[in-house]
Amino acid sequence: MATEKQLDRRTRRTRQAIKAAFVSLILERGYEAVTILDVAKRADYNRGTFYKHFVGKEELLQEIRSEFLLGFAETLLVPYEGMDLVKAEDIYPSALQLFNHIEKHKDEFQALLSVDRSFGFELYDVLRESMRRDMHIIMDEGSPALDYEILLSYQMSAAMGVILYWEESGFKYSTSYMADQLIGLVNRKMDKITFKKIGLCQFQP
């Protein structure tokens, strides 16, 4: 008889197979053309199994979106746990984490963008809110006075522009190369960043 732990593992495996099948079908056919039966067949289950786990494809898409956004938000602070500040030129680890997360989940990323390109704005909002809540940028002494919210919006827009270019290019560059490029672009005038809250982001999509 299966234990509760084995059932949980089986449930996670089933849900993951359904998600993977759905993503692959979106990339092949487009979201609107994909049916529940298509997803169930691709995942090697029947429709009854699908409906045991998801109400429909809208709920399935929402769960994929929420999981991606949560992982994306959590990447920023992971490399700096226990630190009070870091020099701007030393934030490469968090930039690399962002690109690594996208590369690891690039099928989901592309599928979500194909359903709605405004998903890029959701990523932008996650980045900006995380920076606003958990960090504070300190500019070089002598830098011109800037409205902080405008500065933050500019920096996060630049980051998202680089990320979206990478996706549009078919991910032709390595994550380390993209992280190097992003740091070179956005950190030319920053001196250091102090952290207002240490630990993982509490973002709830």
TrEMBL record:
The entry's DNA-binding region: 35-54
Ranges for domain HTH tetR-type: 12-72
Keyword DNA-binding on entry: yes
First and last residue of the signal peptide: none
UniProt keyword list: DNA-binding
Gene3D superfamilies assigned: Tetracycline Repressor, domain 2 (1.10.357.10)
Parts forming coiled coils: none
Matches recorded under InterPro entries: Homeodomain-like_sf, HTH-type_Tx_Regulator, HTH_TetR, TetR_C_Firmicutes
GO MF, any single term: DNA binding
Protein name according to UniProt: Transcriptional regulator, TetR family
Organism whose genome encodes this protein: Paenibacillus algorifonticola
